[in-house]
Amino acid sequence: MRYMLMHKLDETRTEAFNPSPEFMARMDGFMKEVAQSGVLLAAEGLCQTSDGATRITVSGGKTTVTDGPFTETKELIAGFALLDVRSHGEAVEWGQRFVQVFADTVGDVEVDVRRVFEMPEEGMPPA
Questions:
Q1: Three-state SS for 25?
Q2: Phi and psi at residue 18, to the nearest 5°
Q3: pLDDT by position in tens, the chain (length 127)
Q4: Which residues contact 65 (CB under 8 A, 6 or more apart)?
Q5: Longest Cα separation, the chain
Q6: What is the pTM of this model?
């Protein structure tokens, strides 16, 4: 089963997007551990919305394209880790450890642990 851990940060807190050396060392150690466990598929941090972000919205059939920064949105997805685990419980365990890296160095953080939808094989088009 694949799960995505998405961490959200308050973009109005400048320290949230300027990680300390302590945070970088802790996150590096955590990511190495997850990779060595064999469950890590991908992980990346995202830049602030003032650095090349665009939001595309469709409402009532009208498409709107808005360039960042998105000052009206306090908490934004700031990064993710994609895991291939045996169960939801295992994903939550990794998520709790992921959160702790932030809690110990950055402060408040919110992490969503979301299962990735996987198309059933019978629904897949022939290769």
A1: helix
A2: -125, 75
A3: 999 999 998 887 777 778 889 999 999 999 999 999 999 999 999 988 888 899 999 999 999 999 988 877 777 898 999 999 999 999 999 999 999 998 888 888 899 999 999 888 776 665 5
A4: 54, 55, 56
A5: 48
A6: 0.82
Six-digit token pair at 50? Answer: 């003032």
Contacts of 101 (CB under 8 A, 6+ apart): 23, 26, 27, 30
Residue 109 near residue 9, CB atoms below 8 Å: yes
Direct distance between the N- and C-terminal alpha carbons of the chain, in angstroms, rounded to an integer? 22
SS (H, E, C) 37-53: HCCEEEEEECCCCCCCC
Domains of the chain plus CATH, in order, are 2-118 (3.30.70.1060)
